[in-house]
Every structure is written in C-alpha cells, then in structure tokens.
C-alpha cells in the first residue's frame, strides 16, 4: 500500500533525477527504503538492514538486505542534502496534481525535535525554548505548513505542503516572514493568487510587525494574538462579561460546549506604520472549566503544604520557632505554587508558640477567574464571520497532530545523526513519510473509513506470507488473508481510485484480492 503511494508520488524517479548515481543501488531506491522504514518500524541507520531482511522488500526490490548497511544509508543522506528543498517541492507538486489538494487554506505551526549526543559546531542543533520539550535538551525546529484538503469543514487531511528547518534557538515569530515568502512562491507555482489563500496560525505567528507583513504579502491570515501591549490587553480583559453572553458561537463537534465572541477592532503599530484589523474576543467555556479544575488541584496541593508548616511551628520544631522563620517557609510554599499569589499568610503568638494562618485573596482570585478562557483572534479577511473565525482557528489542531505523528509514529525525535547536512536530509525523508501517511488517511476518510494510517498499518502487519520451496527449484508464495484483511484491502483497491489507478499490476497482484483465504501469488512475484 505505502509503496504504491510512493510510486504515485514518483519519489524514486524525482530523487534519482537530482541525485544520479552509477552505484549498484540508486539513491532513489535507498531513499524509498528509508521512508518506508520511518512509516513502518523506525530504526537508527545501523539497524535498518536487519529490518529490510525481515520485510518483503528483499523480494520486491530483488536486492539482499546487506546492501542497506549504514555506510550506504549515510552516503544517501549526503547526496540528498544539497537538493532537499527542490526534491520536496517537486514531490509536493506531484501530490497536488495527483490528489487535487486544495491550497486555499493553509495551517502553519512550528515544532521542535529533540537531539541526543554532542553536536559541536552545529548551526541547527541548539539549546532553546519550545513548547512541551525539555529546556535542557538541544533541539532542531521545523516550520510546517499543511493543507486540510477539499473538505475544509472537517479538515480531513492536513497534508504537509511546505516545511523548513530552523535552529533550535529560533524564536517562533522570526520564522513567519520567511515562511510567508516561501509560501507565496509555492502558491504562485500552483496557480494560486495569494489573495485567495487564508493562512491560519497560533499566537506565535502574530505581532505588530507581522500584521503589516501579512498585508504587504497580500495574504489573508487568521491567528491568535498574545496580548502583550496594554491596548490589546484592555480589549481582552476589560470586556464586561455580560457582553459575551449576548453573542454565542456554535461549535459543530461540541454541541454541549459553550463559546461566546465579541467582535473588536485591533490596532497595530510598527515603525510609524499603523493598521487596524478585525478581531474577536472569545470566551471559551471548556477552557474556563479546565483552568478551574487545574487551579483546584493546585489549591489541593498547597493546603497540605501549609498545614505541614503550621504543624511544625505548633510543635516548636527547630527552625520553626520564630515568626520570621515560619513566615519564610510558608512564603516559600506560596512561591512554588501556581496559586500562591491568591493566598495571604501571617503569624500570631510569641517565640516558641508561633501559629500560622492563611486566607484566600478572594478579589484577586475572582479577577483571575473572570480572565480565564478568554483569548483574542485577529484577521485581515473581511469575509470571515465571528463563527467562521472560531471554526477555522480550531481546525489548526490538525497540523499540530501531524507534528505529533512525526514525533510519535515516525519517531523523528530523538535525532541521532550528527551532521547538519544529514539532519536536513533526514528531515526531507521524514516529511515525505508524513506526506504519505497524510495522503493515505485523507483518501480513506473521503471514502468513509475513519481508521488512522497507523491503525491500518497495524492491521495489515499481521498478514502472513508463506513460501513453499519445491524440489524443481520453483517457489510458491501465498498470503493468508483474513476477512478483516480482505475488507481493508478492498478499501485500497476497490474504493480508493487514486491508488488503484496508479498502482502497478504487481502491487494489486501481490495483495491477492478476490477471496478471504490463502491464495497463490501471481507470476510477477515468483522471481
């Protein structure tokens, strides 16, 4: 199945065009093996030959597994590195034409991949801050742009169409302008005018400078805005709560959730230039409840800590015999607690008989609770209604899930290769693997099958191939296909027109469709 998609994308042909080789195994073949390994059973380079030996690739390619040693794989990465962007662009162009990808809605996100080991002299691997990654680990960042597919309501694809590697210490906002320029070139190459495209990003993709950049690039955008300037903070936090409840917003996949939104005008100013864009201050009921639950857990952890300090003071424990000592230890607990700012502590009694007291700062807590669940969305698109602004922004979770696939299913992180050129080549192959993964899932869901690509791979992995070696030297190969396998394979050959029309005859033959029972494979595989 995956091999057929890679052939549809012409991955081997494209790579060989950029990286011609006179060696026994061409660069495109090795790259395809590396991509399949990322999709099926990600391993370090030194273990890929063992994996090839256990797979059908030995028969499919007609090559012994020993040919895929780590030296050959490393040389392949070296050959790919100078041509990575061009190879990726051509593969995406093929995907856009063969699968009719809709590029009018693009989601943008930045993620980080953790590295292990020493990277002395690397320009990519750096210490830096990144969400949900340890700050004491070196990392590489990658900016990813994804298209949701023809059905932008359900965002059923989130197919990656552009990416770019960045050093691990790169701030999110500094990547946006370069990405927008690259995106403009890609869109024009596919016949899109930038005015036709809506770019959706998170709060790391917008500030005063970038608001002007979007206008200069003639790109429509929708993004969250971190309210750091007072004028923006006032828009979000000075809004009377009663105004929200007059303007409810409907979320299709959460009928019981409560969302409200108030339209506002959002001013931006940078280097003497001013512009005003449309904004929406959103009040999210689910987010507010999540904040309340988290705060409750923090209070539940803080009270026992303060009780412990009070008990030690009452028992006249050493270091707890003076008011200053007891108060210092209580304030330490407050500093270490996320809700410590909402608690006041004081002591009474004389030395040796100190009592610790505390109370909630009710007004401060109430003010924080009113701010919970509020965030600001901004756009320069005059056609987006408040309802559509919320719907589109929530769809950005799709590209975040694709980043999660990179890290969890394709196991791009941790990165073990240690040269910047090889890291960039490995990123190209991982992005092609992610593109393949996304296309499989997108096509399945268009046919009504809700399985993820990972689940499909897991089910098809249980297929058993039996070889019978006869005395006359002939070999009979049979697949044991269960009814469950048969149903899955029908999706790919009977209902999946894109792959069925592109797959070479030997792929369909190898699947052995027709009966949910062991059947002999056809001639093309009996080498």
Q: How would you summarize the topology of this molecule?
A:
Blueprint: H1 2-8, H2 11-18, H3 27-40, H4 48-53, H5 57-61, H6 70-80, H7 84-99, E1 105-114, E2 126-127, E3 138-147, E4 159-167, H8 172-189, E5 198-201, H9 208-216, E6 220-225, H10 230-237, H11 241-244, E7 248-249, E8 259-270, E9 273-284, H12 285-314, H13 323-336, E10 343-348, E11 355-360, H14 362-371, E12 374-379, H15 386-394, H16 397-408, H17 420-446, H18 453-460, E13 464-469, E14 475-480, H19 483-495, H20 497-502, H21 505-511, E15 519-520
Parallel strand pairs: 1-5, 5-6
Antiparallel strand pairs: 1-3, 2-3, 3-4, 6-12, 7-8, 8-9, 9-12, 10-11, 13-14, 14-15
Helix pairs in contact: 2-3, 2-7, 3-6, 3-17, 6-17, 7-17, 12-13
Give descriptors for this structure:
15 strands; 46% helix; disordered C terminus; alpha+beta; Transposase Inhibitor Protein From Tn5, Chain A, domain 1; 4 domains; ten-stranded mixed beta sheet; 19% strand; 527 residues; globular
What does this molecule look like?
The longest helix is centred in the middle third of the chain and has 30 residues, at 285-314. With 527 residues, the protein is an alpha+beta fold. The chain has 4 domains: 2-85 and 419-450; 102-284 and 374-402, Transposase Inhibitor Protein From Tn5, Chain A, domain 1 (Alpha-Beta Complex), CATH 3.90.350; 288-369; 462-525, no CATH class. The protein has helices at residues 2-8, 11-18, 27-40, 48-53, 57-61, 70-80, 84-99, 172-189, 208-216, 230-237, 241-244, 285-314, 323-336, 362-371, 386-394, 397-408, 420-446, 453-460, 483-495, 497-502, 505-511, and strands at 105-114, 126-127, 138-147, 159-167, 198-201, 220-225, 248-249, 259-270, 273-284, 343-348, 355-360, 374-379, 464-469, 475-480, 519-520. β5 (198-201), α9 (208-216) and β6 (220-225) form a beta-alpha-beta unit. The strands form 3 sheets. Strands 1, 2, 3, 4, 5, 6, 7, 8, 9 and 12 form a 10-stranded mixed β-sheet that branches. The chain contains 21 helices and 15 strands. The chain is globular and about 100 Å long. It starts with a helix and ends in a 7-residue tail after the last strand.
């Amino acid at each position: 199945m995956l091999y057929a998609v890679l052939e549809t994308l012409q991955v081997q042909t494209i790579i060989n065009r950029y990286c011609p080789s006179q060696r026994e195994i061409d660069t495109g073949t090795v790259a395809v093996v590396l991509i399949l390994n990322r999709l099926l059973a990600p391993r370090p380079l030194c273990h890929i030959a063992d994996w090839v030996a256990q797979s059908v690739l030995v028969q499919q390619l007609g090559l012994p597994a020993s040919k895929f040693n780590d030296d050959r794989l490393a040389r392949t990465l070296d050959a790919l590195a100078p041509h990575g962007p061009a190879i990726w662009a051509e593969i995406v162009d093929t995907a856009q034409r063969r699968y009719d990808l809709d590029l009018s809605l693009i989601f943008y996100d930045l993620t980080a991949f953790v590295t292990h080991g020493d990277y002395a002299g690397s320009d990519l691997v750096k210490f830096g801050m990144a969400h949900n990654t340890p700050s004491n680990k070196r990392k590489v960042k990658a900016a990813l742009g994804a298209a949701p597919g023809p059905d932008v309501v359900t965002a059923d694809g989130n197919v990656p169409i552009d990416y770019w590697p960045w050093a691990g210490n790169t701030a999110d906002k500094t990547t946006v302008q370069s990405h927008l320029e690259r995106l403009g070139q890609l869109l024009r190459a596919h016949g899109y005018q930038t005015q036709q495209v809506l770019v959706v990003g998170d709060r790391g993709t917008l500030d005063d400078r970038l608001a002007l950049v979007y206008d200069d690039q003639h790109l429509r955008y929708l993004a969250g805005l971190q309210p750091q300037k007072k004028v923006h903070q006032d828009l979000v936090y000075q809004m009377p709560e009663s105004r929200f409840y007059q303007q409810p917003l409907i979320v299709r996949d959460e009928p019981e959730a409560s969302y409200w939104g108030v339209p506002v005008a959002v001013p931006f100013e940078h280097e003497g230039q001013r512009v005003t864009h449309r904004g929406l201050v959103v009040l999210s009921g689910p987010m507010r409840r999540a904040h309340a639950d988290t705060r409750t857990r923090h209070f539940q952890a803080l009270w026992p800590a303060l009780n412990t300090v009070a008990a030690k003071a009452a028992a006249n424990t050493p270091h707890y015999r003076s008011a200053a000592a007891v108060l210092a230890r209580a304030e330490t607990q407050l500093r270490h607690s996320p809700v410590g700012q909402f608690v006041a502590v004081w002591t009474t009694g004389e030395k040796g008989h100190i009592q610790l007291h505390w109370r909630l700062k009710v007004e401060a807590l109430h003010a924080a609770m009113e701010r919970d669940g509020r965030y600001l969305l901004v756009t320069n698109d005059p056609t987006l209604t408040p309802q559509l602004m919320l719907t589109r922004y929530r769809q950005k979770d799709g590209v975040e899930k694709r980043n999660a696939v990179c890290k969890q299913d394709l196991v791009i992180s941790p990165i073990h290769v240690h040269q910047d050129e090889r890291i960039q080549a490995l990123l190209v192959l991982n992005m092609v693997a992610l593109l393949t993964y996304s296309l499989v899932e997108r096509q399945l869901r268009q046919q009504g099958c809700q399985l993820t690509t990972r689940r499909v791979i897991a089910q098809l992995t249980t297929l058993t191939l039996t070889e019978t070696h006869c005395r006359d030297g002939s070999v009979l190969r049979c697949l044991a296909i269960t009814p469950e396998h048969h149903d899955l394979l029908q999706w790919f050959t009977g209902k999946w027109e894109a792959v069925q029309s592109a797959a070479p005859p030997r792929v369909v033959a190898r699947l052995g469709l027709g009966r949910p029972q062991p059947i002999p494979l056809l001639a093309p595989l009996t080498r």
